[in-house]
Amino acid sequence: MTGVKPNYLANLKKDIPSGLVVFFVALPLCLGISLASGAPLLSGLVTGIVAGVLVSWLSGSELAVSGPAAGLTVIVLNGIETLGTFEAFLLAVVIAGFIQLVLGFLKAGVIGLYFPSSVIKGMLAAIGLILILKQIPHFLGADEDFFGEMEFFQANGRNTFSEIGHAFSSIEVGALLIGIISLAILLLWDNPKIKNNKILSLVPGALVAVVLSIAINAFFASFMPELAVASSHLVSIPIINGFSDLSTELQFLDLEAITNPSVYIVAFTIAIVASLETLLSIEAIDKLDPHKRRSNTNRELKAQGVGNMVAGLVGGLPMTAVIVRGSTNVAAGAQTRVSSFVHGSFLALSVFLLASLMNQIPLSALAAVLLVVGFKLTKPSLYRSQLKLGSEQFIPFIVTVVAIMFTDLLIGICVGLAVGVFYILKANYKSPYFFHKEEHREREIIRIRLSEHVSFLNKASIVLTLDHMPENSHVIIDGENSAFIDYDVLEAIQEFKKTAHERNIQVELVNIKDVEVMDLH
C-alpha cells in the first residue's frame, strides 16, 4: 500500500467506534450467509473472526473488511452438495486459500487495475441500491429470509421487488417503529452539530441506535406486548457456554477427501471467484477512501489465501473482502485496519460472552444502519456526475448498476466490463496516429505519424486506415515519436507494405522495425 504508514494509536478514537458499527452489521450477515449456504450456523462467525483478527493485519488495505460473502453462497451450497459433507468442503476451502496465496506471489493482483472506473462506481451504486431494497422488508419487520441476502431471485420464490410488495402487506408495527427511531438517530448523528461535539462524536450513531432498539423492544415486551418484535426478526446467535459447547458446534476438515477430484474443482472455483470479488472490493474501497490510499492487491491476495486456509482448518466458510462491510467501515469514519480488527474481536466476544445480549437486537435497527450506508453509496449526485462525464462513462456505469441488480455481483461486473471495453476500444480507435495529407503534381503524399504508445488495441484503426489509402499515393509511416509499437501493429504495417504495389502505392517506413510476415507461397 502506498502512502505514509498510519499511526494506529492516534486513530483509535475513530477506529474503535467504526469497528463497533461494522460489527453490528457483520454479525447478522455472518449468520445469514451461513444459513443461506447450508452450512453450520457458527461457520460464518468463525470466518468473520478469522478475517477480523488475523486478515486485517495481513491485508494490503487499511480500510477493507473481510468475511463470508453473499456472492459465494451458491458456490458454497453447491460445493457442500457435490462433496457430500461439510468436512470435505472445508478441505476445498484450505486448498482454495493455498491457490490464492500462490496467485499473490505470482502478482495476479494487478488484474484489479484493469477494471474501468465507471464499472467500479457502477458496482458501488448497485450495492447501495440492493442494500436499500433488501433492507426495506427487514425495516418493516416483514421478512424472515436471511439478513444480508443479495440475490434478485430469492429462495422463497419471490424477487427483490415482490418481496417489498409482500412486506407492505404484513408490516410488524413494533419493528417498524424501532426501525424509524433507529433511522432518525443515524440521520441526527450525521448532523454537523453532533459531529463537532467532542463527546458525542466519540459514540457511533449505530451503537446508540442498536442499544436504544434493545431498550425499546424490552419496553414493548413489558408494557405493550402486541408491539414486541417477534423472535424471527431478532438477531440469532448460538449460545456457547464453554469450550465443550464450542467443540460440539465446530466441524473440522476431512483429509480423506483429498483423493476426490471434485474437491480440487470446488477449490479452484472458490479461489477464482473469491479473488475476483476481493480485487473488485479493494478497488472500490480505494475509491471511497478519503485519503485515496492505493492498496497492495498482491499482498491482499496473500492475506485472503492465509485467511481461507486458517478458516478452513477451524471450520469456517470461505472469505473475501466484502464491499458492504468495507463501505460501512468507511462511512463510519474508519482510518486504519484497527477498525477491522476491532470488528473481529467483538465477533469473538459475541460468541463467548455477548450471545444472549446480541440475540435481543431487532433486525429493523440493523436494517436502518444499512439503509444509510446504501444511500451513501448510491447518492443521486453520483448519477449526475457520471452523466456529466458523457456517454463513454455513463453507459458502462448504468449498465453495471442494472446488470448487478438483476443478476449478481460477478455477472453484473462482467457485463459492465464488456460495455466498458467497447468504449475503450472505440477511444483507442481514434487516437493511435496523426494523419497529414499533401497534394503534389506527381502523386499524393500521405504522412502517418504514430503516437508514443501504439498497442494491439490500435491495430483495427490502423489497418482500416491503410486499407483506405488512395491508389497512386506515396504513404510515409513515421514511428520516430513512438516509444513502443505492438508486434501486431508492426506486422499489419509490413503486410500493407508488401501488397501496396498492387494499388501502385509507394510505401516509406521511418523508424519502423521489420518483422516477418507469414507467406504460404
TrEMBL record:
<feature type="transmembrane region" description="Helical">
    <location>
        <begin position="263"/>
        <end position="285"/>
    </location>
</feature>
<dbReference type="InterPro" id="IPR001902">
    <property type="entry name" value="SLC26A/SulP_fam"/>
</dbReference>
<keyword id="KW-0472">Membrane</keyword>
<protein>
    <submittedName>
        <fullName>SulP family inorganic anion transporter</fullName>
    </submittedName>
</protein>
<feature type="transmembrane region" description="Helical">
    <location>
        <begin position="346"/>
        <end position="373"/>
    </location>
</feature>
<feature type="transmembrane region" description="Helical">
    <location>
        <begin position="394"/>
        <end position="425"/>
    </location>
</feature>
<feature type="transmembrane region" description="Helical">
    <location>
        <begin position="306"/>
        <end position="326"/>
    </location>
</feature>
<feature type="transmembrane region" description="Helical">
    <location>
        <begin position="88"/>
        <end position="106"/>
    </location>
</feature>
<feature type="transmembrane region" description="Helical">
    <location>
        <begin position="113"/>
        <end position="133"/>
    </location>
</feature>
<dbReference type="InterPro" id="IPR002645">
    <property type="entry name" value="STAS_dom"/>
</dbReference>
<feature type="transmembrane region" description="Helical">
    <location>
        <begin position="20"/>
        <end position="42"/>
    </location>
</feature>
<keyword id="KW-1133">Transmembrane helix</keyword>
<dbReference type="InterPro" id="IPR036513">
    <property type="entry name" value="STAS_dom_sf"/>
</dbReference>
<keyword id="KW-0812">Transmembrane</keyword>
<dbReference type="InterPro" id="IPR011547">
    <property type="entry name" value="SLC26A/SulP_dom"/>
</dbReference>
<dbReference type="Pfam" id="PF01740">
    <property type="entry name" value="STAS"/>
</dbReference>
<dbReference type="Pfam" id="PF00916">
    <property type="entry name" value="Sulfate_transp"/>
</dbReference>
<feature type="transmembrane region" description="Helical">
    <location>
        <begin position="201"/>
        <end position="224"/>
    </location>
</feature>
<feature type="domain" description="STAS">
    <location>
        <begin position="435"/>
        <end position="521"/>
    </location>
</feature>
<feature type="transmembrane region" description="Helical">
    <location>
        <begin position="167"/>
        <end position="189"/>
    </location>
</feature>
